[in-house]
């Protein structure tokens, strides 16, 4: 990608947009997808509703942090390679920096006012996800067939918990789309051109496999603490579907059972990670700061953070060129209609648990969440403004 003023302007635009989200996107990966939809589909119109849902469905299939992968792809779409890196850095670094400061002893999350803000931010996630579900349902489930697929996805993720349920719901939705949605023609299908060549995709896939196989062998053959840390965090990022909370057992096995991090430090960091914006994978930066090998500190935090995100991004780059061709087929479009309807169902189920159940504790929280929903859907306020207002509201109903 050539380095022109227009290109640099787009990269700055990507960085600014994702920095706002990195500072305000509370609520976990499902809420992040709602923030992204509000910002980039509704407000900035970088891509269509259908293309966005296609990206979400793809990233739900892949190992790694789904919301960060969607953000990386959006940055790639808007600003090329530098745009993708800008999106990842701006969305990830705010929470990583806060967690490293917490590890170094900064008491950022204590006191009644701080707890009230955190409570208000949890309520904000309810409004954001409800707004996303409502908007996506109107666009992606306009008929009985796709509404039925969305409902089936809700039952699937309720009956089969965890990331397995999410993957199963999308697979079932895709198969149902192949059978039921061939007759539906989309009024408007926007091509989604991502600047990833087949050669770049092959190189990314080869790098993913080489690191997954090579790092454990090198760590076993060489008594190097650096290689051991790289291997542990790379495998944690490469072998987890669904991201977020699903990665915690893997990290616990790697850093607590090995004696690198004490159980108390692990739980304290996990609690802090719940109270910061951005992806939960930034928990790796906290662990790197407090672990025994290499003495912890900023360098190890940066290494752990980079290694846990790297496999998911390599996999995404590896499949994007083939996916762009795949989604142009007629059969693939029917499949994606069903998968997109299933994504709506997954978001709907997550709206209840864990988003609603963890935030709405009584009528005051319900009123605050309804206010946020109306500010987004009727008054069309940007997500960051709603976050600020509801954070203040959280203080008022808590203190």
Keywords:
399 residues, mainly alpha
Describe the protein's architecture and organization.
The protein is globular, with a radius of gyration of 21 Å. The chain is 77% helix and 0% strand. It has 399 residues and is mainly alpha-helical. It has 16 helices and no strands. It has helices at residues 5-24, 29-43, 49-61, 66-103, 112-140, 144-159, 163-180, 198-221, 225-238, 247-256, 263-273, 283-290, 298-326, 330-359, 363-377, 383-398. Helix 2 (29-43) crosses helix 4 (66-103) and helix 3 crosses helix 14. The model has no long low-confidence stretch (mean pLDDT 86).
Short description:
The protein is mainly α and 399 residues long. The chain contains 16 helices and no strands.
Main sheet attributes: strand count, strand direction, barrel closure: none
The pLDDT mean sits at: 86
Order of helices and strands: HHHHHHHHHHHHHHHH
Quote the distance from N terminus to C terminus.
52 Å
By secondary-structure content and strand pairing, the structural class works out as mainly alpha
- Radius of gyration equals 21 Å
Shape: globular
Low-pLDDT parts are none
Tell me the strand percentage band: under 5%
Number of helices: 16
**Helix fraction by DSSP (H/I, runs of at least 4):** over 70%
Overall number of strands: 0
